[in-house]
């Protein structure tokens, strides 16, 4: 698998760039070359793990949530709203972090649950409702940073930045790696335990895997589906809160960098397994961080990640479909 | 406000949404339409700009949309892979390829982006006329032809279509390719006729919007086109009403921009998807035996 992924990157570079070997070296150096490269990779790894886990939970429940983007933004907005009065009251990061991150979780969970409710009660495809909810969250953010959440100076469309005493602490003042990484290390295990060691997680998987079997066993499928969307939204929202408190430290219209969509290949490549998400997120985080280095030398660079993601997903899907095309039974 | 301007802003959505209607009626939910529009916008603009010929630009735009649709159909129809997954990958592919192409073609030189002007009479250009002619054409195709009947069957109960001697997969591929071509045309229209320029990721969710419009217009070509016009109207309002008070309240531009999505969502909340949704939408078909 790992060899295949490196080969995939090499192949993409060979097709698209004039100097594939040099490009490969630059990407690798940019991702792992020194402590700055490693931390750059890990900083990108955190939101990819959290949103990737969000996609895993929803898709395991049979809900094709492509609204990670909107839920990420909803989490950021909720955290920024919570931050405003607390910052005026002079709170430091230790007090802010639990409150803001909880707000982010609730904000994201609400945004995800909304799509779940629409599916369960109104029969609206999750794909369609999450697309709409993405637009609404992003437009809402654009409005809020020029309105109720705008900086006190009132000039630019952004919130007031958190000070270093209010943001999540960093390990090393020279690099951007923040304490949010603990969440990315612990949550995959928690999601794994939830999905494979609890009743609720088991029901969620049964509903996603085989809705008929779920009905035969009197599992409340609508409830499990709405729950899977709420949990998925909670994780994506948390990612937004952590990104706000740890990296951007303020909200602006450009707050989300496609995290919600990048999460889909992360989850797929991990085979929708919560622990493997850590590895697939590392692969994409390294390419994200490394291609930034490439961008310093050539015109292309940062958009490379999209091509690699597309190639990875299509390759993965193609291989999987090819290998089990004979086994599938026609739906009754 | 200029009436022709309203039609011009709505046209890319009409192209894309009509393409999506055909796809969804056949049971294929094409998420990759966003990417198909984007390649149409970039390569259409690139070729029209280099050759100075706008018809060639539209031709290339349609061909690029078609090419992505072919890739998509191999995975979603032939290999019966999940349509959401493949569509997401198609969008990434388009974002990456057009981003790279744009930087290679225009990035370093800093040259001015130019494209040939379309001929216009009272603000109406030929491709706008084509967009509006497509509305009755697509309706006729779906409702009045044998192929359209089979197409609708593929979206509702594919096994019955297969039994009557049609190939479900062939019809779905045809529908997907037709839709991809229209999406490519819509993208080319966006860059060549609406914007007169190209920017990275310039479709900015219009393909997703087309998907929403299909639901909003209840899978009927004429209603979908009307919904696209209404949306174009709402979007053009933001220019004319920006900063002007209504009943003494100034409504910010972002609220206007968000309004169409909120309205679509409210319609879904109160009306729901109902029974008009193609029953087999999003489900791959496999032959028995």
Q: What does the model show?
A:
- Chain A has helices at 2-16, 20-32, 35-60, 68-88, 93-122, 126-144, 181-197, 199-209, 211-216, 221-248, 259-269, 277-295, 304-323.
- By secondary structure, chain A is an all-alpha fold.
- Chain A has a single domain (33-314), classed as ABC transporter involved in vitamin B12 uptake, BtuC (Orthogonal Bundle).
- In chain A, 57% of the residues are buried.
- Chain B has 11 helices and 2 strands, in the order ααααααααααββα.
- Chain B has a two-stranded antiparallel sheet.
- In chain B, helix 3 (54-78) runs antiparallel to helix 8.
- In chain B, 54% of the residues are buried.
CATH architecture designation of chain A: Orthogonal Bundle
* Shape call of chain B: globular
What is the helix tally of chain B? 11
Strand portion of chain B: under 5%
Backbone CA Rg of chain B: 19 Å
Look at the structure and give the CATH class of chain B. Answer: Mainly Alpha
Task: Give the CATH architecture of chain B.
Answer: Orthogonal Bundle
Largest sheet of chain A: none
What's the Cα radius of gyration of chain A? 20 Å
- Please give the domain count of chain B: 1
Q: What's the story with the biggest beta sheet of chain B?
A: 2 strands, antiparallel
User: Could you say how many structural domains of chain A there are in total?
Assistant: 1
Regarding quaternary structure, how should these chains be classified? heterodimer
Q: Which blocks of ≥5 consecutive residues of chain B have pLDDT under 50?
A: none
Count the DSSP helices of chain A: 13
N-to-C series of helices and strands of chain B: HHHHHHHHHHEEH
Q: In which range does the helix fraction of chain A lie?
A: over 70%
Kindly name the structural category of chain A.
Answer: mainly alpha
Q: Looking at CATH, which topology of chain B would you report?
A: ABC transporter involved in vitamin B12 uptake, BtuC
Rounded mean pLDDT score of chain B: 85
């Amino acid at each position: 698998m790992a060899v295949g992924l490196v080969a995939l990157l090499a192949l993409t570079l060979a097709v698209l760039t004039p100097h594939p070997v040099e490009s490969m070296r630059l990407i690798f150096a940019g991702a792992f070359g020194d402590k700055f490269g490693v931390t750059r990779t890990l900083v990108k790894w955190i939101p990819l793990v959290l949103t990737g886990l969000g996609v895993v939970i929803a898709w395991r429940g049979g809900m094709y949530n492509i609204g990670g983007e909107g839920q990420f933004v909803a989490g950021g907005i909720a955290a920024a709203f919570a931050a405003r009065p607390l910052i005026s009251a002079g709170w430091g990061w230790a007090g802010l972090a639990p409150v803001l991150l909880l707000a982010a979780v609730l904000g994201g969970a609400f945004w995800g649950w909304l799509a779940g409710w629409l599916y369960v009660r109104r029969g609206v495809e999750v794909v369609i409702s999450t697309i709409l909810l993405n637009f609404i969250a992003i437009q809402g953010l654009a409005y809020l940073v020029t309105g109720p959440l705008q900086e006190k100076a009132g000039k630019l469309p952004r919130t007031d930045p958190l000070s270093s005493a209010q943001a999540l602490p960093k390990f090393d003042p020279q690099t951007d790696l923040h304490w949010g990484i603990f969440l990315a290390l612990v949550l995959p295990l928690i999601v794994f335990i939830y999905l494979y060691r609890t009743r609720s997680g088991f029901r969620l998987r049964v509903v996603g895997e085989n809705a008929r079997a779920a009905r035969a066993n009197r599992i409340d499928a609508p409830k499990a589906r709405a729950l899977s969307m709420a949990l998925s939204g909670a994780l994506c929202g948390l990612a937004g809160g952590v990104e706000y408190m740890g990296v951007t430290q303020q909200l602006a219209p450009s707050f989300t960098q496609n995290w919600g969509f990048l999460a889909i290949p992360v989850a797929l490549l991990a085979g929708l397994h919560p622990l493997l998400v850590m590895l697939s997120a590392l692969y994409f985080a390294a390419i994200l961080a490394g291609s930034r280095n490439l961008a310093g030398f050539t015109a292309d660079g940062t958009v490379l990640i999209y091509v690699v993601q597309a190639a990875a997903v299509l390759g993965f899907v193609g291989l999987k479909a090819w290998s089990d095309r004979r086994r599938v039974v026609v739906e009754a | 406000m200029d009436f022709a301007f309203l039609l011009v802003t709505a046209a890319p959505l009409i192209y894309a949404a009509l393409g999506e209607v055909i796809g969804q009626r056949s049971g294929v939910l094409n998420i990759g339409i966003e990417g198909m529009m984007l390649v149409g916008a970039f390569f259409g603009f690139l070729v029209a700009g280099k050759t100075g010929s706008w018809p060639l630009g539209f031709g290339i735009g349609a061909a690029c949309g078609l090419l992505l649709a072919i890739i998509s159909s191999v995975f979603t129809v032939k290999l019966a892979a999940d349509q959401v997954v493949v569509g997401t990958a198609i969008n990434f592919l388009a974002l990456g390829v057009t981003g790279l192409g744009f930087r290679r073609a225009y990035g370093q030189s800093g040259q001015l982006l130019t494209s040939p002007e379309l001929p216009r009479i009272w603000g109406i250009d030929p491709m706008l006329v084509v967009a509006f002619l497509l509305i009755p054409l697509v309706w006729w195709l779906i409702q009045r032809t044998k192929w359209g009947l089979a197409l609708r069957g593929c979206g509702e109960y594919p096994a019955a279509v297969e039994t009557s001697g049609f190939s479900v997969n062939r019809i779905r591929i045809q529908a997907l390719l037709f839709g991809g071509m229209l999406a490519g045309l819509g993208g080319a229209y966006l860059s060549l006729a609406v914007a007169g320029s190209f920017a990275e990721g310039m479709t900015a969710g219009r393909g997703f919007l087309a998907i929403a419009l299909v639901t909003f217009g209840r899978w009927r070509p004429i209603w979908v086109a009307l919904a696209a016009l209404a949306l174009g109207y709402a979007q053009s309002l933001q220019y004319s009403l920006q900063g002007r008070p209504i009943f003494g309240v100034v409504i910010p531009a972002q609220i206007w921009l968000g309004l169409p999505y909120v309205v679509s969502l409210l319609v879904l909340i109160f009306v729901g998807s109902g029974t008009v949704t193609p029953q087999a939408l999003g489900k791959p078909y496999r032959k028995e035996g």
